[in-house]
Write a structure and sequence with these properties.
homodimer, mainly alpha, Four Helix Bundle (Hemerythrin (Met), subunit A), globular, DNA-binding
DNA sequence: TTGTCCATTTATGTATACATATTGCACCCA
DNA sequence: TGGGTGCAATATGTATACATAAATGGACAA
């Protein structure tokens, strides 16, 4: 009875949204496939009204695409689309870092970020990095990026970054897990952590341009990971989000 | 009968969305004010289902804010929010210009942009600029920015720029009309047009960094206009979108 | 007079019935 | 056999009734 509590506590709309998102990201609904409301009702077990709301929300989340004549289909992404989304996130996070630097983030507000940095250092220091450490890194890395975004103190920018990061393959931690299976893993992790260190330093010293440039470059590590994984094609299973890739002949 | 055609041709959802958006931007619904579904039903004349859809759409358009306990309220913006939104748009348009330059926009695809540039030149050349010319400039300017965005050939970026520009005060032409009443009007117009010229030149010569920098600076003209208008406070009527400004003691 | 609790009212969340538009298939005609 | 037309099936769009949760106001007690 207690195990049903979390499910009971949320609205039907949210439940439908989660169920459908899961179906899409896991690849059970293929890119380009039309997803009718009735079908969605069967999948989620809720009625058409909340299902429709969930579909609209998934559309502006970027996972679905509206069909001109009505209804929705699962969006398909090219490799280029994904790379552009990563560059886009990098650009926005760069702007956030610049804002943080220019507006003089207080020493107190920088404290959580520094703590997060130290925690990441702990995890990265291991060699080889255990799978658990990788998993912990993913969580902590997401926290670092979230804290950095907040430091911009700009609601419109924060909102926009959140929207871009909603696409799983564009999120800061989207490709970290893939690294755990790549030979270049540890080195890339170390480089990424160095970026983290530099951006905090730049913000502290009010070096806006430097902070911005570093965050932009930082996002390109994710692009590098993506390319490595796609060329190897051995560890695609670690990246369920790639189910949305167009003509994925997996 | 024929005059009702355009109204009849669109869905109730779209109609409700337009009606509510108009109410918000015209200031008849004040920032922070809760807007209940029943109230929206009375305003729009359609039933709750499409009204609700419209409210959700206006939320991710950025005009409404969800209330945690349910329902929506009209979003309030600070002057800083607006300035940040403009900087955000400039950053994204800068990225678009860089993409266009780096990816080698073809001479053929640059053609419409150059035509648009020439048209703008025509309009700017007048001194003083007539009100009709200003109005034409607004239209043509919007077209220029749209074409430039398209040149990036990046669907994710285009999507994001469209979302930012949906906020009326963040759109490329949001503050042009205000210029028509400012003494600095003509000069700012000329500078803006020079930016246009430079960015086309930079794209043509594959100078990505230059194209990006110019578009960023270009957006700051809008920021300048905003500050001028707010300091003068004489021509606020030209900018209905400012109804969303927090504590606007107009 | 003020604070708290309960009742009432009004809001949103959900389901479903009905209206209308779109799509696809079959059949007929050229 | 190819193409077009029309009907049937199925999709989305809309309205509304019902369920449930939140907000409000009044009454009573401290």
């Amino acid at each position: 009875m207690s195990e049903r509590d979390p499910e009971r506590s949320m609205s039907q709309t949210v439940r439908a949204q989660l169920a459908l998102r899961d179906m899409i990201l896991s690849g059970r609904l293929r890119p380009g496939e039309r997803i009718s409301e009735l079908q969605a009702v069967e999948i989620t077990g809720v009625s058409r009204t909340p299902v429709r709301l969930a579909l609209v929300r998934l559309e502006d989340e970027g996972l679905l695409q509206a069909i001109p004549s009505g209804g929705f289909m699962v969006k398909a992404f090219t490799e280029r689309d994904i790379l552009d989304s990563i560059e886009l996130r990098g650009t926005l996070e760069g702007l956030a870092a610049r804002f943080a630097a220019e507006r003089g983030a207080s020493a107190r507000s920088l404290e959580p970020l520094k703590e997060c940095l130290a925690d990441l250092d702990q995890l990265v220091r291991q060699d080889p990095v255990s799978v658990e450490a990788f998993s912990a890194y993913v969580t902590m890395n997401a926290r670092f990026h979230a804290l950095l975004t907040e430091l911009s103190a700009s609601p419109p920018l924060i909102r926009q970054i959140d929207r871009v990061s909603a696409l799983p393959f564009a999120s800061p931690s989207g490709f970290v897990m893939a690294q755990s299976a790549l030979p270049e893993a540890h080195q890339i992790l170390l480089i990424g952590q160095d970026h983290h260190r530099i951006v905090v330093d730049a913000i502290e010293n009010r070096e806006g341009a430097r902070a911005e440039a570093v965050m932009r470059e930082h996002s390109r590590l994710a692009a590098r990971n993506l390319r490595l994984v796609l060329r190897n094609r051995t560890h695609l299973d670690l990246l369920p989000a790639l189910a949305l890739l167009k003509s994925s002949a997996e």
